[in-house]
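Section 3.1: Structural characterization of target chains.
Under the original work plan, the team committed to producing a structural model for every single-chain target entering the pipeline before any wet-lab resources were allocated. The record below documents one such target. The sequence was received from the expression subgroup and is listed exactly as submitted; it comprises 418 residues.
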Amino acid sequence: MKVREAFAPRVVPSYSEALAWLYGTQRFGIKLGLDNIRLLLAELRLPDKTQRIVHVAGTNGKGSVCAMIDAICCAAGYRTGLFTSPHLISFRERIQANGEMIAAADVATGLIDIRRRVANWETHPTFFEITTALALGHFAERECEIVVLETGMGGRLDATNAVQPVVSVITPVALDHQQWLGQTIGEIAGEKAGIIKPETPVVSAPQPLEVENVIRAKAGVCNAPLRIAMERYGRSPIALPGRHQQANAAIAIAALKAAKIQVDDSAIAAGLAEVKWLARFQRWDERTIIDGAHNPAGARVLAETWRGNFRASKATIILALLQDKDLIGIWSALKPIARRVILPHIRSERALSPAELQTVIGRSSPEISCSVSRTFAAALDEARAEAAPLLITGSLHFAGEALAHLLGDPGGLEDCLQ
């Protein structure tokens, strides 16, 4: 499915109204816990007990691993469901069955049903709880055999953790969302390891020793067989660039094997050759890369992948970050590949002020030109006036705004705080 076709609008009269109600539930904030989602899933009689669920947590790479598992299973002939977050442009991206985004009409119908059921609840479900239930309902209607669920944040108290998977998967763990998950990498690892279930196999990426110890301890308590995917996959091409994607592919394949989901080598090769995951070192044209790196670990991988593709050529970076992100850590990772930085004002209410960004970058890197631009469109025009390769990065929310503009439909961005 081509990018432009994927985001072609499919408007039905009630879609925007239903989505407005869902977005309005963000006023309830983020409430980590499983009581409410369990009540909601019980009310909807979800998930379908015949489905095999692959549950994926981690800090970086979990979206790519989910997309790979889904692509391989599609290539093997399974009916698949894929639930990820956040979306880039359209809310519908979050819920895909057999490689197709949920239809606008199905979003509206599902949300209207959930709204009716929870209207008088004392504790209203959150945005993410409702979205999780909507996804599982869609996958049941589409009779999906394999369902891949990406955690929203953390794992232990994430709404997706209310289900019983056939395998639990933990991608690389790093510092992120500290205000919710803990201030140390060990505390964060404990939250991610919370998806491990009794006697259910676990597959993990190679981790820092402190993280690995937490995962091993939790797996031991749960009597859950643990495999750490140490190797990188290199038997066939992967559509997603970067050496880290070879590691992600190895995790995806190990997860399928641990879950005893039958896929042969030809399905693995076909799925990895066709897998699509936007804003992960996405090449828009010969000189423009879009990547949603939003923490220092992700930014370091981005810089490594840049050097692998552009060698010594440095980038004009259009950078926008959210307020809760580690600006100094991210900039330290990106600085070695930067020749110039342009800081646009963006739409997100959570955006860090470009002036604040400029101050921090200017103090640490006075030798690098750093300017503020009134919009992304203006920043893009300014960057394209020069011949240097261009990197658009800083957050997935910003990547979505950039993609909507590049696709010629900036008004089509369905912005979201979660």
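Confidence is low (pLDDT under 50) at residues 1-5.
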